[in-house]
Specification:
By secondary structure, the protein is an alpha+beta fold. The chain has a domain of about 130 residues: ATP-grasp fold, B domain (D-amino Acid Aminotransferase, Chain A, domain 1, 2-Layer Sandwich). Helices cover about 35% and strands about 25% of the residues. It has 9 helices and 15 strands. Strands 7, 8, 11, 12, 13, 14 and 15 form a 7-stranded antiparallel β-sheet that branches. α7 runs antiparallel to α8. The structure holds adenosine-5'-diphosphate and magnesium ion. The site of magnesium ion (MG) has 2 residues, from loops. Magnesium ion (MG) binds next to loops.
Amino acid sequence: MTAVTTTALPLPLHSRGKVRDTYRMSEGELLMVATDRISAFDVVLPTPIPQKGRVLNQLSLAWFAQTADLVRNHLSPDLSVPPPLLRELPDLEQRSMRVVMAEPIPFECVVRGYISGSGWKDYQRSGSIAGAPLPRGLRESARLPEPIFTPSTKAAAGHDENISRAELANRAGRELAETLERLSLSLYRFGTERALTSGLILADTKFEFGFHHGEIILIDELLTPDSSRFWDAEQYRPGGPQPSFDKQYVRDYLEQLGWNKQPPAPWLPDDVVEGTSSRYLEALRRLGAAGPREPRELRSEGLRRYVPS
Ligand SMILES: Nc1ncnc2c1ncn2[C@@H]1O[C@H](COP(=O)(O)OP(=O)(O)O)[C@@H](O)[C@H]1O
Ligand SMILES: [Mg+2]
């Protein structure tokens, strides 16, 4: 099957993000379509990754279903895709999700259980992550004594900015900040336990929330390789960077090219594309096995009963 770089469904376009094309489905409802676009260092690459959109969408669907008791999410009560739309794009059913339109809360709710990436850089500089004090002498990729909540702003363009919990409380109000933290930590704990049963470490992840009829709901994607760092538990060796489960080939390839990380991004060679695609499929295979049921079965049964109204 050929990769889907962009979509043109006969519906009003709501927005095109780095990865997803979102349409207005009906009053108050969106259809989010995961394309095969991939971004690295916040730049969308010209080369798509076959299967990636389908994998991301199916993982999110399964996680939303499994976490519906912890926090209400944006899945529509009716998840079916109308047949005329299905004829427009052969695998639309697998790569799309009907959701209620929320008013996004403009913060990324990041939870880290391990010290890596920008958190590791911050710690080396300051001994803390976004003001959260941490024990001395941690090694790169070490497990933290407790998972920590390290929010960031959601920038309309460019890079997000890390802010302290106190700063989040200033900007969002104390009550909302506390709720976002509590929900994020409980979702992270749930994801960690489930991932470990398939031999994966959920090193860190990001959640987005929104308001829907005055209620806080979980939106966007959930516990996918695009929003999270997954490591193979068997290969985990703290004291350096870990092979990540997804964009590793892509990032390594781009780093070794010496690309300046400004658009336009270079094309990826076939072996890097295939390596990345098979990594996403492997993530779906392993994490899919951790769920109670296959995402497709969930859809055909109707997710309704998993989603408290
Ligand atoms: N239920 C929802 N209602 C409104 N907006 C949403 C909902 N779920 C996700 N979004 C927004 O839709 C966009 C998803 O597309 P994506 O490709 O991830 O964009 P981005 O480049 O901003 O990450 C994000 O900006 C996200 O905040
Ligand atoms: Mg996104």
